[in-house]
Amino acid sequence: MTAERLSCDLAVVGAGPAGLAAAIAAAGAGAGVICLDAFSEPGGQYAMQPSQADSPFVATAPARLGREAAAAARAAGAEILCDAEVFWCARVPRGFGLSVNRGGRALVIEAKQLVVASGAMERPLPFPGWTLPGVIGAGAAQRLLKTGTGSLPLAGKTVLAGSGPFLLAVAQSFAKAGQPLSHFVEMMRPSPEHIARLFMRHPGKLPEAMRLGLDVRRTGAARLMGHMVTRALGTDTLEAVEVAPISASGSPDITRAKVIKSVGTLAIGYGFQPVIDLTTALGAKHDFDAALGGWHCCADATGQTTVPGVWAAGETLGIGGAVPAQLSGRIAGAAAAR
């Protein structure tokens, strides 16, 4: 079978906030841009688009951001190809060659320049039973709620566990979808003093944090702070979840563990790490910084990596959120279009 071939000045890998911002900036500067994304709609994980017209997520700010950014990119002249997964990339005589699986069909794109804005992936933390059917990532649970029918497919209780602010956002998605949540299990137990210092440094986050906290209450979940999942139990599929309090040493106290029975879904999340497959394959320099999510691509102030012709944007450069991702995408797209 002969692969379809396309060419462009700039290929942008990823149609999340960073990739769309890069496409807008580059196309607006006159470059011929093709923006690719593995999902069926542009927006990425943050600004994912609901598949149901009556979904309660249609009117949310992230969904509007995704729609507006995609429309702006197309209006600027960029071509957005969804359901397009880049599985190989290498330097070719006239720039870079990308091999793409687009809905089961082969596509080859030749681009003079490249912006990698492939986002982040959930950071796994293995534990006994973590491969049982019914154990999924917290981000996967949120995607099912937002882009599916608004419910999880498995019967039984749902437990949301892990650590970090993203858990609150996922709990908010459960509340907005009207889905019950049995238990909310957070590894950390921040003191009132720690919380006060945090909001003194970031006072603008207080209203959002209050909304998220209220949404956790709306789910009706039993909250277990300072606990973590130690085992997922079941024979052929998930049946129960064992949780234990965190001791003073930072380890789970198994002697005080308890089992949550009749569980159908365990959604678990311990933060994110940058997706660096393409930048690694292309030979770009990477560095490790736990505060940025671990291994991330290194770049200068414009997003230019150590590989000539390759820019990086968004969380490929380190975990930072949607607003910094958009800014870095805008800068990288403008620089790549020069």
UniProtKB/TrEMBL annotation:
Keywords: Oxidoreductase. It comes from the Bacteria. One of its GO terms (molecular function) is oxidoreductase activity. Residues 9-322 form the FAD/NAD(P)-binding domain. This is FAD/NAD(P)-binding oxidoreductase. It comes from Pseudooceanicola lipolyticus.
